Amino acid sequence: MTKPHGVVVGYDGSDFAMQALDWAMDEAEPRRLPLTVAHAWEWPYGTAAPGAKEHLRKAAEHVLEHGAHRARASSSIGDVRAELREGPAADLLIELSGRADLVVVGSRGLGRVATTLLGSVAVQVARHAACPVVVVRGPGPLPVSGRRGPVVLALGEEPHDAELAFAFGEAELRQVPLLAVHAKTPPLMAWGPAMAPVPDVEATVQAGEQAMTERLAPWRSAHPGVRVETRFAACSPVEAVQAAAGTASLLVVGHGAARLGGVPKAALRHAPCPVAVVGAASITAAGERLNARA
Predict the structure, then answer these.
(1) d(Cα 163, Cα 159) in Å, to the nearest integer?
(2) Rounded to an integer, what distance in angstroms lies between the CA atom of residue 247 and that of residue 234?
(3) Are 133 and 279 in contact (CB under 8 A)?
(4) What is the DSSP string of 194-207?
(5) DSSP category for residue 224
(6) CATH number of 151-293
(7) pLDDT at 191
C-alpha cells in the first residue's frame, strides 16, 4: 500500500544530494509514487541576531525549492512535495519514514560531517527509519552511473521477509538479476589428537547452499520474471558481500539490532554501489502491517 509521503529524499543541494534525488526519482516514477523532497536547517552559532535566522530559513527554502523544481522538471512524477523543517536532518527523515515507502539519502552532505567517509545523517537514518533506506554511494561527487549489474542481497542467518521482498522488488523494477550471497566461516574439524584442526569447508558449503535454496524457493515462485543466482562462500560474510558488490547496481542488507554492525556497517562505509538497508524498525513495521492484515 502506498504511503502518503511515497519516496522521501533528503536534499541539501550538495552533489551527493543530487545523486540521491536522481535515485529517488528512479524509484518513484515507475511506481507512480509521490516524491517528497525534504530539507532541514539549523542555526549553528548559538543565539541568533535579529533577522539572522529568518535569512537562513529563506536560504533553506531556496535550496529546497531548487530540489523540488529539478524533480518536477526532469521527471513525469505527478506529485512532488517539499518538506522544510528547522532542526536536525536525521530527525526529519526518520519522522517522515513512518509514513513513507522508501527514504533515499546521499552518503555525505554539506554539513560539518561532509569530509567524513559517511555522513552521520545517513547512519542515523539507516539505523532508525521505519522503512527501507537507500544510501546512494558511488565514486565521489559525480552522477551515479547507470549500472546494469545485479541487485545483490546479503543473506544473513535468519533473513526477514521484508529484506527479501525489497530485494526482489528492486530486481524486478530494474529488470536485472538478483544475486543472493550468503557466507559462513567453516567450523574447525580434527581427524585425530595429533592433527591440528582444519576447516570443514565441504560440509559448510553443502549446508549453506541447501539453506539458501529452501529460503529463496517461495520468492522465486512469486517473482518468476527475476533471474536468481546464488553464491555461498566459506569465508567471513563481510568479505563475501564486499566481493559481490563490486559489480552490483544495488546492495541490499538487513539488520535486526539497534546498532549497525557487521555486514551493514561495512557496506555503508565501503561498498562501491548504493546500499539499501532494511533495518530493525523497518522490519518491525513490516511485521505490524502483516499482523494487521491477518
Answers:
(1) 7
(2) 20
(3) yes
(4) TS--EE-HHHHHHH
(5) T
(6) 3.40.50.620
(7) 53
